[in-house]
Design goal:
144 residues; alpha/beta; 4-stranded mixed sheet
Length: 144
C-alpha cells in the first residue's frame, strides 16, 4: 500500500446539515456532491459526509450509536491565536467546543470541537512541525 489517504468519510445523520456546517467553516463542496453525499477538497485529501446508516450498510456493519470512536481529525494552524479563532468559528457554525485552546503536554497549543454528529476535530499549533507554504505539515525526516 502506498503512503497516502485519499478520502476521509464521516457517517452523519443529516448530509445537508453537515454540508452546511462544513461550508460555514469555509470549505467548499465539490460539484460532484449530491443530496446523499458531499465532497470537500482538503489539499490532496477529500473529506466526504455520507449518511451514517448508508455508510454502515456499505461496509457490511450494523448501525451503532455515535460515540467516541478513538479517532480525531486534526487541522494545524500557524499560531495559538489561530487555534482560538478556528475553535470559535466552529462553535459559531454549530459545532460544540469540547476543550478550549490551551498549552498541550507535547509543547504546542491545541483544543477540540465536535461537529454536529460528534466527530472530533483537534485544532493545533505545533511549533515542532511547521506548515509549508501550502499549509501542509512538515514532518522531521525519518530516523536512519
Amino acid at each position: 500500500m502506498e503512503s497516502r489517504i485519499s478520502f476521509v468519510t464521516l457517517g452523519v445523520k443529516d448530509v445537508g446539515k453537515s454540508r452546511k456546517f462544513y461550508e460555514a467553516l469555509g470549505l467548499r463542496a465539490s460539484a460532484a456532491s449530491q443530496a446523499d453525499v458531499a465532497f470537500f477538497s482538503l489539499g490532496g485529501i477529500v473529506l466526504s459526509v455520507f449518511g451514517r446508516d448508508a455508510l454502515a450498510k456499505d461496509a457490511g456493519l450494523p448501525v451503532s450509536e455515535p460515540g467516541f470512536s478513538g479517532i480525531s481529525l486534526a487541522h494545524n494552524v500557524n499560531s495559538e491565536a489561530d487555534v482560538d479563532r478556528v475553535l470559535n468559528e466552529a462553535v459559531v457554525a454549530g459545532g460544540k467546543l469540547l476543550k478550549p485552546g490551551q498549552k498541550a503536554f507535547w509543547g504546542g497549543y491545541s483544543g477540540y470541537f465536535a461537529d454536529p454528529d460528534g466527530h472530533l476535530w483537534e485544532i493545533a499549533h505545533n511549533p515542532f512541525m511547521p506548515l509549508d507554504a501550502e499549509g501542509r505539515v512538515t514532518l522531521p525526516e525519518p530516523a536512519p
